[in-house]
Amino acid sequence: MFPRKALMGAVALATLAGATVAHADSPEVFRVGILGGENEADSLRNYQCLADKLPAAIGVKEVKLFPATDYDGVIQGLLGGTLDYAELGASGYAKIYLAKADAVEPILTTVQTDGATGYYSIMVARKDSGIKTLADMKGKKLGFADPDSTSGYLIPVTSLPKDIGNVAVKDYFGETGFGGGHENLVLAVKDGKFDAGTTFGSGVGSFDEGYTSGNLHKMVSKGMIDMKDFNEVWRSPLIPNGPIVVRTAIDANMKAKFKQFMVDLPKSDPACFSAIQGGDFTSYTEVTPAFYQPIIDARKAQIGG
Question: How far is 64 from 51, CA to CA, in rounded Å?
């Protein structure tokens, strides 16, 4: 079950964005949705550089940031036309595509430091729990990050059965639940509320640093966790990096300027690029809906929408 606080956060975001729906196509304001999973203050701080730079780059008077406490708040804002841009996980994009295929356009995704355009779902457990393998997790309590998270839910429930003897997740683990976002999920594992939990990372670089990017890396960078306290229990197959999406209906000239701004960002402002991405990446590369078709198909089969 979703925590009530997270649900209220989604409602609050939709209400806030909805208050300006009459001006959704106005070139005066550009609305940025920020996925939940990290605390709001950190999210706003990381995205402030975009709010400062985008007005001049794309020709608007103001950029407004709308952080959500869960994924669905941003998803509904994009579906409702009250947000203009967000960076989504692949499963979140699939949810929008299955509801309204032309609501948004995926235009770019990130490239890892090793050249990959993917990342991993990573299951972690406390080192002092003695849990090192999936066999150790049989009958134990597994935590997921968010129902609309690719790495925190969709990929684990579709990929884990192959690694646990073709048994359904609900039948192998003693109990499952949601942590209310990636950051909260890892903290819940740290606090012993779950025996293990699924979050995400690049899988590149040092485990002690939480790899080069992803939720674990961000939490290490903020001093929230020490990876020496955790074991990596399981890693998924490579997952497509989530897309930067823009609302299809926005002005084509603005869309082109925004895309170019983002393509240039890794070189024009590396610190801003790193802040909004939460780690080390090399660049952006173009994507189309076809890049996400396997995730769209997986979501349709597993969740239905």
Answer: 7
